[in-house]
Specification:
- It is a single chain.
- This protein is mostly helical.
- Helices cover 59% and strands 4% of the residues.
- The strands form two sheets. A two-stranded antiparallel sheet has the order 1-2.
- Strand 1 and strand 2 form a beta hairpin.
- Helix 1 crosses helix 7, helix 2 packs across helix 6 and helix 5 packs across helix 6.
């Protein structure tokens, strides 16, 4: 907890300073208040580091210079005085909230993507920046979320335990108090589940709720709101509903000129360029708009990825062949009636959407109508491509927020928030209870136990056991008896992809055998290379015996 607190003490003033800097050069505010400056700082630094990562690694020099500039503006502009603007009652809420955030954020990371996607992405970004064709090495690395770019830049010494999400939770609490948007206090306990990892789910949910609050409050700064909504989309493209909403709000309600969309369009282009550089196509993981680039991944691997997404839609409860034989009715029925808690989530999702559509017709409010249209478009995309609950979890937050905004006053919100906090804290201390109550919620079985050392140092895993191999001009590492490479030295390949490459008859190679930064491409294997990969897969299989 102490280490996280020290990180916050450094990062938050830096973000405030950068936020003020961006307000000065853009001559506008993203949001009012101290939280607005911090969020503007996150937004601006993320954009600068995304561009920088094409050319340089996000190493200690990038981090140190960013911190110095942020602190310079923080003290020069006397921004620390704004921290005294809260009432004594507000400080009590902030203090209690801070302790809860620090406590929950100090637990072991448990989200599987932390080990297979988040941390490997950070390792590459810190050491090499954005690498051309990195998806050829490990397909999931082709995503390189902008949130991971932001985390990577602060992970050299300011936040080595990768708890940037705890900083964001505190910023969100400050925003709630500044805006007196009390219903959002009820969301904070649920979001604590994302505090142990640099999960992009947390920022997109928080930023979307903040943008929603501003739109419902008739914020007329449409240019910066649209740009920020595209930034949220760039963090996680399943948030496509937010820029759609910002666009509809800007054009049809505020009636802003189209030139107000320019900044957002520039960010969208940057997002596409980033994906083209790392993945070979503009939209990960879809192979549309083929530019014929030499570093695009193998079609066989993309097909396997698509099949895997379909299997995940049905929680791996049916084979791909069975799913292909489903009629439209079977497809819907089997998705709604999956075994376990995911069936409940899927049914609630459809019911919530239907209820919100009816609510929209009753209210006859233009902004709520725009929100509904945006959510329906997003939900349609998700249902068509990969209807996994993690892709539409944000819809629940939005619907609850809009429908109960006027019902939850300060008193009701505080009471519900306290109750939910107790439940979440109990769940994190005793995850085995949740595993017994909800056996199908597998994540609870992966949560580490509470340890007293968390009071000063957040819990983290160390493994660093791996095998090294060489195929063609690529020397790479594979974790021993573990499917992911969260602390395996780069270049590392997840063992599942080694088997996929063997099946497809291809293997990643370095564009320049002397420089990893130059990137990777996929090459068809020779007979000699196929034999070598066969020995590697046999070695991986035998290591589990």
């Amino acid at each position: 907890m102490l280490f996280i607190l020290f990180s916050m003490i450094v990062v938050i003033p830096v973000l405030i300073g950068w936020g003020k800097f961006f307000e000065i050069i853009t001559k506008t505010q993203l949001l009012e208040g101290i939280s607005g400056k911090i969020i503007f700082g996150i937004f601006g630094i993320s954009m600068i580091w995304t561009v920088s990562a094409f050319f340089v690694p996000l190493n200690i020099y990038v981090e140190a210079s960013t911190i110095l500039i942020g602190l310079l503006y923080f003290f020069r502009e006397k921004l620390y005085l704004e921290l005294y603007s809260f009432s004594s009652k507000d400080y009590i809420v902030i203090g209690i909230g801070l302790l809860i955030i620090l406590f929950c954020g100090s637990f072991y990371p448990y989200i599987l993507d932390h080990f297979g996607y988040y941390v490997p992405s950070l390792l590459w970004l810190k050491d090499y920046g954005l690498v051309k064709g990195i998806s050829n090495l490990d397909l999931v690395l082709g995503q390189m979320s902008i949130w991971h770019i932001f985390q990577a830049g602060f992970s050299n010494f300011t936040d080595p335990f990768l708890r940037i999400n705890t900083v964001l939770l505190l910023v969100y609490l400050l925003y709630i108090i500044e805006k007196r948007s009390w219903i959002q206090l009820c969301f904070l306990p649920i979001l604590l589940l994302f505090s142990q990892s640099p999960s992009p789910d947390l920022p997109v949910i928080i930023f979307s709720l903040i943008t929603l609050q501003e739109i419902l409050a008739n914020n007329r700064k449409t240019a910066i709101l649209f740009a920020f909504s595209v930034f949220v989309f760039a963090i996680k493209p399943t948030m496509i509903w937010l820029p759609i909403l910002a666009f509809l709000y800007s054009i049809f309600i505020i009636k802003s000129p189209l030139k107000k969309l320019t900044a957002g369009i520039v960010i969208f282009v940057l997002f596409c360029v980033k994906n083209i550089w790392t993945f070979g196509y503009p939209f990960f993981p879809i192979s549309i708009i083929d530019l014929g680039l030499s570093w695009k991944p193998s079609q066989e691997l993309l097909k396997a990825s698509s099949e895997f997404a379909i299997l995940k839609t049905f929680d791996n409860q049916y084979s791909y062949q069975q799913i292909q034989q489903f009629s439209t009715f079977d497809y819907i029925k089997n998705w709604l009636l999956l075994d376990g808690i995911k069936s409940v989530i899927n049914i609630l999702f459809i019911l919530s959407l239907l209820v919100f559509i009816i609510f929209t017709f009753i209210k006859k409010n233009k902004i709520i109508t725009c929100i509904c249209i945006s959510l329906v478009i997003k939900s349609t995309f998700v249902l068509l491509f990969s209807a996994q609950y993690r892709f539409f979890i944000d819809v629940f937050f939005v619907i609850i927020f809009v429908m109960f905004l006027k019902y939850f006053n300060e008193r009701k919100s505080l009471i519900l928030s306290i109750c939910l906090n107790l439940v979440i804290i109990g769940f994190m201390i005793f995850p085995s209870i949740a595993a017994q109550l909800i056996p199908s919620y597998r994540m609870s079985s992966m949560m580490g136990k509470f340890e007293f050392k968390q009071l000063y140092k957040p819990s983290s895993y160390n493994y660093k056991t791996y095998h090294s191999y060489e195929v063609g001009n690529l020397k790479f590492n594979v974790s021993k008896k573990y499917p992911f490479n969260f602390d395996t030295p780069v270049p590392a390949i997840s063992e599942s992809f080694v088997f996929d490459y063997q099946k497809a008859g291809v293997f990643p190679q370095m564009i320049d055998k002397k420089d990893l930064k130059k990137g990777f491409y996929t090459k068809k294997m020779s007979v000699k290379e196929q034999n070598k990969v066969k020995k590697i897969t046999e070695n991986i299989t035998n290591s589990y015996k």
